[in-house]
UniProtKB/TrEMBL annotation, chain A:
Designated name of the protein: Transport permease protein
Residue ranges annotated for the ABC transmembrane type-2 domain, each copy included: 25-254
Pfam families: ABC2_membrane
Main location: membrane
Transmembrane segments: 26-49, 61-82, 103-131, 143-166, 173-194, 227-251
UniProt-listed InterPro entries: ABC-2_transport_permease (IPR052522), ABC2_TM (IPR013525), ABC2_TM_bact-type (IPR047817), ABC_2_transport (IPR000412)
Membrane topology: Multi-pass membrane protein
Keywords: Cell membrane, Membrane, Transmembrane, Transmembrane helix, Transport
PROSITE patterns listed in its UniProt record: ABC_TM2
UniProtKB/TrEMBL annotation, chain B:
Alphabetical UniProt keywords: ATP-binding, Nucleotide-binding, Transport
Record bears the keyword Transport: yes
SMART domains: AAA (SM00382)
Keyword Nucleotide-binding: yes
Species, as recorded: Oleiagrimonas soli
Domain ABC transporter: 7-238
Protein name: ABC transporter
InterPro entries listed in its UniProt record: AAA+_ATPase, ABC_transporter-like_ATP-bd, ABC_transporter-like_CS, ABC_transporter_ATP-binding, P-loop_NTPase
Amino acid sequence: MSHTFTHNLVALKTIVRREIMRIVRIWSQTLIPPAITASLYFIIFGTVIGSHLHNVHGYPYMTYLVPGLVMMQIITNSYGNITSSFFGAKFQRFVEEMLVSPTPSWVILSGYIIGAMVRGLTLGVIVLLISTAFTSLHVEHPLITLTTAMLTSMVFALAGFVNAVFAKKFDDIAIVPSFVLTPLTYLGGVFYSIDQLGEPWHTISLANPILYMVNAFRYGMLGVSDIHIGVAYAVMAFFAVTLGGFGLFLLHRGIGMRS
Amino acid sequence: MTQAPALEITDLRKTYSNGTEALKGVSLTVQPGDFFALLGPNGAGKSTLIGILSSLVNASGGTAKIFGVSIHEQRSQAMHLIGLVPQEINFNQFEKPFDICVNAAGFYGIPRAEAMRRAEKYLKELRLWDKAQHPARSLSGGMKRRLMIARAMMNEPKLLILDEPTAGVDIEIRRSMWQFVTGINKAGTTVILTTHYLEEAEQLCRNIAIIDHGSIVENTGMKQLLSKLDVETFVLDTSELPAALSDVDGIELRRVDDHTLEAEMARGHDLNSLFAMLSDKGIMVTSMRNKANRLEELFVRLVENGSKQENAA
Ligand SMILES: Nc1ncnc2c1ncn2[C@@H]1O[C@H](COP(=O)(O)OP(=O)(O)O)[C@@H](O)[C@H]1O
Ligand SMILES: [Mg+2]
């Protein structure tokens, strides 16, 4: 039992280390572009446009924007990391190194998820650091801030994993981010409070899971939210468990990997 | 106590989702310490069989045990016993050979310090140490094959499986690869090799199975196999040959060049008529030897028989 445990731990560390090495090796693709994007949002929306806007939930627009932009980068980078890394492993076939080994599916999945979370959360921290150049840093509820960031990162890493499992060509990992993820993120309360929307847009927005995550995170940082925090946690937990189970099933069955 | 066979497969079947029946009930036993050849033409089902053993292909039926451990019921335990050198390159081309080996060991739960020690050992033995810190994509084809052997050795498997490892590798590198594999076989590792390169099996392996169209058509010792051969070919070195030669009864003649003649006949056929004909024509035979492609002849024969039976059925 403990023998198996140490084996699995070594395998997990191996995958996580390889994922982190990958992020570092191609830092000019993994770390720099998201940082530039976030900076541009701060400058354009926060400074140029935001200075003409009213306070939102009692905060200057720039300050209100920070949690949204942090979440946006956590979401895109957690998702993007695992799709390109895991699809790359399938494409170059080195996923087989793991599949032929005694490493159980849940260890493989955990390794890739942790790797993607490292990328997502690193970007989150980078965006927070950039934001301090524009506004002062608020963290009302550190624990909520941290758990929301981690859960969101995990959910989108899992979603990216499922995407990568089904992807047969590179286009297949670009479609979902462009046509699903980006619109949902932009409409998920990153830039505004849904209280500012009239009906039916307010109600329609409630169907967007990203809204719950962004609001929970904003509640953690600023103490304001459009959504009840308990509901937000339930939504995140639901997606984490469902996608986690599905991802494990796919890997275990070797869908798209074993013939 | 008798040791369990290194490999014992029973009625293994595979039908791919597109309907291709790649294995039609294969049974095979490989003894510990053996150097075993699985020989067959392209598309025979060799890689499918290897794929099932290494869990990359899901079997449609049948069982397989590695040293008595079922690959289905005790997968993780069975995988600890196997080292796999696949037919297609399957490592990360952007990583370095050293990291590829160390990571591979990690998937078997081998602690990093030990993994680094082994990576150095096997990369050195496979003469890749000077390339250990270069991106893998910069390696030549032969080096990439050797890297996959080094990687397969990282868990020090009891059973090493090589799927056509010398396809497209030049003779020099092929030789050094065989030297290494023969060495670890002598040290106790069971080796299974698939190939359609016939001399390779003949030179290296003690036992052999021949597979064609998803069925085993022959499974025996290499020596027994060769002795079964009912046809032999002699190569004769001669004085200047005429442009055309007609066959002697029961002996098929092939003029290879001005001074070389091949004569193919049933084993034990009388050679006097050949020599009589040659001396009639004033051709002198200076030397004579057995042609070294016996296995190839046998193979063609077995496969032909197999397909005749299949057509008849
Ligand atoms: N993934 C696959 N899907 C469908 N058919 C396959 C697949 N892999 C192999 N085959 C078919 O199965 C048969 C056996 O192939 P394979 O095991 O690769 O033979 P070998 O390794 O002896 O050349 C061939 O007819 C091949 O086309
Ligand atoms: Mg093959």
